[in-house]
Design brief:
UraD-like
Length: about 170
């Protein structure tokens, strides 16, 4: 695992190659953060990456959110998730659900996407299926602007864990 000093010295292509997968299918976020080096901490690097997401035009942010897979959805069952997503969903047992649980997730995924226009995003590591399903139900009742902000905060939690696994301070 490279340390932050090494990451700060990387050529832009190497920087993006290392960090481009931290945010689901969005190497543009690493590209946007790269010119802001050097970073004083991994937290500062993560903050720069999150800032790139937050200042992106609304349509780009929405496309970014839509690059996330449905929880326990068709991609998970077909085993076509990114390795990070597969590991994260597996840590919550979402790769070992019953047919009834799969039906519940499919129903909630469809209802959520219909209401908000992007998939339900939650940092699942350390959470069980029941807690995730309860969060799904609660968040379905929210105002769309509040829910987009919540989804971005969940992305921040997910990506910070991923970044901590790639770069040491």
């Amino acid at each position: 695992m490279p340390d932050l000093a090494a990451v700060n010295r990387m050529e832009p292509e190497a920087f993006v190659a290392l960090l481009g997968g931290v945010f689901e299918h969005a190497p543009w976020i690493a590209e946007a953060a790269c010119p802001h080096r050097p970073f004083a901490s991994v937290g500062a690097l993560h903050a720069a990456m999150m800032q790139a997401v937050r200042v992106a035009p609304a349509e780009r942010r929405r496309a970014f959110l839509n690059n996330h897979p449905d929880l326990a959805g068709p991609e998970a069952r077909a085993r076509t998730l990114t390795s990070d997503s597969a590991s994260e969903q597996g840590s919550a047992g979402l790769d070992r659900i019953t047919a009834d649980e799969a039906a519940a997730f499919d129903h909630l995924n469809a209802a959520y996407r219909a209401r908000f226009g992007f998939p339900f995003i939650i940092a699942v590591r350390g959470r069980g299926r029941a807690e995730i399903l309860a969060a799904f139900e609660t968040r379905l009742t929210r105002d769309p602007a509040v829910e987009e902000a919540t989804a971005l905060e969940e992305v921040a939690q997910i990506t910070r864990m991923r970044l901590d696994g790639l770069v040491s301070d």
